[in-house]
Amino acid sequence: MTDTAALLTRRTLAGLAAAAAFAGTVRAQGKGTPLRVGLMLPYSGTFAQLGENITTAFELHLAERGGQLGGRPVTIIKLDDQSDPAAAPQNVNRLLARDKADVLVGTVHSGVVMALVQAAREKGVPLIIPNAGNVAAARELCSESVFRTSFSNWQPAYGMGLALAKTGVKKAAWITWDYAAGKESGEGFRDGLKAGGAELTQLLTLPFPETNFQPLLAQVPGLGVQAVGAFFAGGGAVQFVRDYAAAGLRDKFPLCGSGFLTEGTLAAQGAAAEGIRTALHYADGLDNPRNIAFRKAFREKAGRDADVYAVQGYDAAQLLAVGVDAVKGDMDADKQLFAAMRAARIDSPRGAFTLSAGHNPIQNIYLREAKSGENRMIGIAAEALADPGTGCKLT
Amino acid sequence: MTAAALLVQILNGLQYGLLLFLISSGLTLIFGVLGVINLAHGSLFMVGAYVTFMVANAGFGLWLAIPLALIGGTALGVLLERFLFRRFYHRAHLDQVLLTFALILLFEEGRSAIAGNDFHSVAIPAFLDVPVPIAAGFAYSAYRLAVLAACLVVAMLMFATIERTRAGAAIRAAAEKPEMVDLLGMDARRVHMLVFGAGTALAMLGGALAAPLYSVYPNMGDGFLIVSFVVVVVGGLGSVAGAFWAALLVGLVDTLSKVFMPVGAGAAIYVLMAAVLLWRPAGLFAAARA
């Protein structure tokens, strides 16, 4: 009895193993089977517009390639992560277990992205981050399966610090929300100032996402600084810039910041933003043929203008295409897939970029000035800037 | 810190606190009289702000937005009370929470459909858009001072109404001993409509005044709602006077903690709430309730 049972079990096991192996080959060789790309992005809430722009530009590039990558048709699965970190692990699991995604693309919110990074590190699923700028993803949590086509929070602020120091400012303060992106950009600003021979003397923070800035602004005249830098985004950025101007601080203490301070917010900020300098890896009116063609195509598809988020989504599709083409659609050849993506040179609307060891873009950080509703490029704040990648063991 | 800088910070605290009072006074009245926890109160604030934005977009200023918020708010409140909340007074709190949570979703969806998901700024009325120099190098906007004054006037009108008028007596009676309303020969349902209408109008007025200061954006009511609950709990559920002093206290604590101990400043008002609850479990001005 026991022998039979054992035999049966062994047979069953062997059968299962064979079936699994067979399924594996079918999946790997099935040229006709669609490549399943899971887009986990915010389609509702504060960041909905960002998620939409990333998605539209991602689809735009796929359409330019006839809807195919590496000879396989592509199925896109969209999941609204609502920028909710609490629901993030469950959402990632749904894309992987229920929707059988071969590739993950996401997301905007830096708290939510950690669940994606964790899944990519544990399960080896390729992940492309089209926005969230946590420095950890390019540093201690870097992984051969995790790629980013946006920025690290450190990069734009470093460029701003460096450019500010070059104008002769010796002491500056940084005002931001007390959360990862705010602090990481503050470190970039500090390092950039230092590289230019200046100093960050004050770090003022308030809890995320509060917008009662008055208590901080009233301290500015007493700080003994010559300029103020800031990291805020969205509604917080709108109000901060307006409050800064209303407090009469602009003339004595010029305001600058990471590009997000004036990105997609200029219409709401109005005259209060006029003349503010920011640094970012994209600017309005970049005069290269790639950018002009991209903006025209995006406008035709979406009926609105492209922005930095759209560029990041477009490049996520470009990077994925490089990898999947290199393995001719065989996603099981992950070593070659990752190697091809690591070595990719992306012809981005922002200007061509390659990836650093931590799989983060090495890119120009442009210095921009807000003028009549646009962030016009006025120079390059830092050329071919890479995140330091401290703690990343990849090469 | 110089005395002038401290004065600016105290003004900041008072102005923030008085704005909180507009929201929390309605919240506490509705709870005190109707016994309903209205989670959608923050959404009404949001509606007031968006109405102001749309009025401004159509080429009109605050002078039109404010009466519109007051009249429209009263009407909206009366309708909500008459057709929704009235059916929920005798239901469990959980049912009320579900109702008001559903209203939040409805208001936000409506906002999304009508005004979209973008951030919008609202212009400060030109004659108030002037800096008033208070401390060296720091200007206080005349509009902020005007908001401060307007909130004080509203607060005084409220106290006068509640303490000195027949309607106010009915409200006090309804909050403390509901049977008294019937004994006084008044229609309790009218009192309920009045209170809900007034509470809604106050929240929308708060939104209208706040729109030029804070811009308008999706879910803007959430943050204010949570802090308003702190105010209501600290002041004592159902007490308008409690809400007034608690709002000033919360505004000052929030502002000054940000200045003097930036690390952990976000927790200061919650520590305050915990301390008050330990000392006076029913809040500073607990209404005498049967």
**CATH homologous superfamily classification of the largest domain in chain A:** Response regulator
Oligomeric state of the chains?
heterodimer
Number of helices of chain A: 12
Order of helices and strands of chain A: HEHEEHEHEEHEHEHEHEHEHHHEEEE
Q: Supply the helix-strand structural class of chain A.
A: alpha/beta
Order of strands, widest sheet of chain B: 1-2
Largest protein interface? A-B, 36 and 43 residues
Helix % of chain A is 40-55%
Task: Indicate the mean pLDDT of chain B.
Answer: 89
Number of domains of chain B: 1
Number of strands of chain B: 2
Q: Strand share of the residues of chain A?
A: 15-25%
Mean pLDDT of chain A: 90
CATH third-level topology of chain B:
ABC transporter involved in vitamin B12 uptake, BtuC
> Percent helix among the residues of chain B?
over 70%
Give the H and E element order of chain B. Answer: HHHHEEHHHHHHH
Question: Could you characterize what this model shows?
Answer:
- The complex is a heterodimer of chains A (395) and B (290).
- In chain A, 40% of the residues lie in helices and 21% in strands.
- With 395 residues, chain A is of the alpha/beta class.
- In chain A, strand 10, helix 9 (266-269) and strand 11 form a beta-alpha-beta unit.
- Chain B has 290 residues and is mainly α.
- Chain B has a single domain, classed as ABC transporter involved in vitamin B12 uptake, BtuC (Orthogonal Bundle), CATH 1.10.3470.
- Chain B is 72% helix and 3% strand.
- The N and C termini of chain B lie far apart (48 Å).
- The model of chain B has no long low-confidence stretch (mean pLDDT 89).
- The interface between A and B is large, with 36 and 43 residues.
